[in-house]
């Protein structure tokens, strides 16, 4: 796989899409960071951060249960 690494404010960013500019790569990573932060807060708030399961059905069931309990409380 080919790609390149850019540095922005001392932080390295890697992209396999050679058509992106440095500004686009930094913008995409910024958007991704917001999404990851949102997932972390959501997992913490609904109680799913403690689960250790990796089975897709178990994860879906656990998230559904957490959201149901959150709704009921």
How would you describe the overall organization of this protein?
This protein is α+β, with helices and mostly antiparallel strands and 73 residues long. The chain has one domain (4-72). It is built from two helices and two strands. It has helices spanning 22-46, 56-72; strands at residues 4-8, 11-15. The chain is elongated, with a radius of gyration of 18 Å.
Write the layout of secondary structure elements.
Elements: E1 4-8, E2 11-15, H1 22-46, H2 56-72
Antiparallel strand pairs: 1-2
Strand percent estimate: 5-15%
Strand order of the largest sheet: 1-2
Unreliable spans are none
Into how many domains do the coordinates divide? Answer: 1
Q: Rg to the nearest angstrom?
A: 18 Å
For the sheet with most strands, the description reads: 2 strands, antiparallel
Alpha carbon gap, first and last residue: 48 Å
Average residue-wise pLDDT = 76
Basic shape: elongated
The portion of residues assigned to helices is 55-70%
Quick overview:
The longest helix has 25 residues.
What are the salient characteristics of this protein?
single chain; 2 strands; two-stranded antiparallel ribbon; 73 residues
